[in-house]
C-alpha cells in the first residue's frame, strides 16, 4: 500500500440509508472528501447523501494528539470536522484473517447540527443484523451495523459515550463478519480529548 492515505466515500442510495465504501492505506497524510452520516434506521427518514469526492475539498490537519488526528474539510461550502484514529492493536478469531484497514472517527457537521457523531469502520462486512459492541472500561455501548460501518445504536447514549471516551484509556470494538470471523480492535483514547477540543474550536 502507498504511504499516502486516500479515503473515498461513495454513497449508494438504499432504503436503509447511504452505504460507505472506504479505501484506506494509512492515517498519515490524510486525503478525505467528506464524512458520512449514520444510516437511517427502518422507519426513519434517510440521511442526506454527502457529496462525492469530485465536489469536495481536501482536508486540513488541525493537529495530531497521540494516536488521534484532528481534521477539517470543506464540502459544497459546508465545513466538516472530525477526530480520527486507527486501532493500536487488532485480533481475529480464527487468527490472521485478512481484512481492510479499520478506524474510528468522531465527526461534527455544524450545517446539519451534528456534533461528535461516532462512526466505526471495521474493515469487513458485518454479519447481517449483527449488533457490535464498543466497550470503555465497564461501560458497554451497543452499535448498529450496516455493511462495514457501525454507529451508536441509541442516539441518547452518544454524548455519554463521547464523555466516557474523553475520560477512558482504551476503547474495545468487538464484531463478527458474515463469514463468522470475530474481531477485537483496541483504540487508545489518549489524545482524543485534545483532538475533540480542537475540532470543536474549528467547527462551532
Helix-strand blueprint:
Blueprint: E1 60-65, E2 68-75, E3 78-85, E4 89-93, E5 103-109, E6 114-121, E7 131-136, E8 139-146, E9 149-152, H1 158-167, E10 170-176, E11 182-188, H2 192-202
Antiparallel strand pairs: 1-2, 2-3, 3-5, 4-11, 5-6, 6-9, 7-8, 7-10, 8-9, 10-11
What can you tell me about this protein's structure?
The protein is mainly beta. It has one domain (58-202): Immunoglobulin-like (Sandwich). The protein is built from 2 helices and 11 strands. The protein has helices spanning 158-167, 192-202, and strands at 60-65, 68-75, 78-85, 89-93, 103-109, 114-121, 131-136, 139-146, 149-152, 170-176, 182-188. Strands 1-2-3-5-6-9-8-7-10-11-4 form an 11-stranded antiparallel β-sheet, covered by helices on one side. Strand 7 (131-136) and strand 8 (139-146) form a beta hairpin. The radius of gyration is 16 Å and the shape is globular. The termini are far apart. Residues 1-35 and 41-56 have low confidence and may be disordered.
Question: What are the defining features of this structure?
Answer:
single chain, 204 residues, mainly beta, Immunoglobulin-like, 11-stranded antiparallel beta sheet, 10% helix
Amino acid at each position: 500500500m502507498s504511504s499516502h492515505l486516500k479515503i473515498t466515500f461513495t454513497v449508494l442510495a438504499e432504503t436503509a440509508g447511504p452505504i460507505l465504501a472506504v479505501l484506506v492505506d494509512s492515517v498519515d497524510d490524510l486525503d478525505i472528501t467528506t464524512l458520512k452520516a449514520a444510516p437511517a434506521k427502518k422507519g426513519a427518514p434517510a440521511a442526506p447523501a454527502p457529496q462525492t469526492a469530485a465536489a469536495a475539498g481536501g482536508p486540513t490537519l488541525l493537529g495530531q494528539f497521540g494516536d488521534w488526528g484532528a481534521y477539517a474539510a470543506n464540502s459544497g461550502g459546508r465545513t466538516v470536522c472530525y477526530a480520527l484514529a486507527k486501532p493500536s492493536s487488532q485480533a481475529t478469531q480464527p487468527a490472521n484473517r485478512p481484512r481492510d484497514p479499520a478506524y474510528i472517527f468522531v465527526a461534527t457537521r455544524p450545517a446539519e447540527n451534528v456534533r461528535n457523531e461516532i462512526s466505526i469502520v471495521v474493515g469487513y462486512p458485518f454479519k447481517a443484523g449483527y449488533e457490535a459492541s464498543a466497550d470503555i472500561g465497564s461501560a458497554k455501548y451497543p452499535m448498529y451495523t450496516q455493511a462495514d460501518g457501525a454507529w451508536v445504536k441509541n442516539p441518547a447514549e452518544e454524548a455519554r459515550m463521547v464523555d466516557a471516551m474523553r475520560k477512558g484509556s482504551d476503547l474495545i470494538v468487538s464484531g463478527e463478519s458474515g463469514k463468522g470471523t470475530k474481531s477485537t480492535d483496541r483504540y487508545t483514547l489518549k489524545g482524543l480529548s485534545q483532538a475533540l477540543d480542537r475540532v470543536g474550536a474549528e467547527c462551532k
